[in-house]
Amino acid sequence: MIWWQSVVLALLQGLTEFLPISSSGHLVLVPVIAGWQDQGLAFDVAVHFGTLAAVLIYFRHDLAAMAGGWFRQVGGHGPSPESRLAWAVIVGTLPLVLAGFAGHDWIEANLRSALVIAATTGGFGVALWLADAFGGQRRSEDSLRPTDALLIGLAQVLALIPGTSRSGITMTAAMALGLTRSAAARFSFLLSVPAILAATGLETWNLAGSPDPVRWDILAGATAISAVTAYLAIRLFLGFIERIGMWPFAAYRLVLAGVILWLVV
What we know:
The protein contains 11 helices and no strands. It has 265 residues and is mostly helical. It has one domain. The mean pLDDT is 88.
């Protein structure tokens, strides 16, 4: 991979990982459209480490409070808002982990096509707009019940299909359950921590048996770029989402779906 191509893809990963527009869809499509070689598994691991670092740094205080509350509850103390939120993240993660390990190889072999990406990009863009427009917008993430977390987790399974957007589908489900935009976004970002850890762990396991040479300079740069870009994307998104709503992202997804269809049909 040429260094400037890695910069473009790392910027894309950092920008799109936490916006409801599908990072995997962009990373699959851009090399195809530009005629670049596939970036390879090592690059995917590197940029995922970068976005993981970004969300850990941004939510470090929340995550520390959630971990402390969870351990205190397990140790015999009563539940707290922090422990309940930690349990919600755990419950919301289980469906993705089970489905990911069971169906990852089949999805990679059968669903990484431009037509699938166009369908999921457009279809779930409409779902995002509908949830934003009619979801109620009244609840905080602290009000999540175990059944709510499970429903959001089941929706997150759909993110295994390229073009769906993990953040987009979890925000859609959360808003459909009545969470405000910012609460849906915050829970989606907290839910991304174990999701990205699981995905990166699986990719790293697969990478361990790969004979491909590794360009450590390119990987280090891509990790740093994706981390900084993702951190800024989280900060800006949470700062503006209550004012602008989800319609710009839904509209972008519909336009992108149309462009994909125009390119491949």
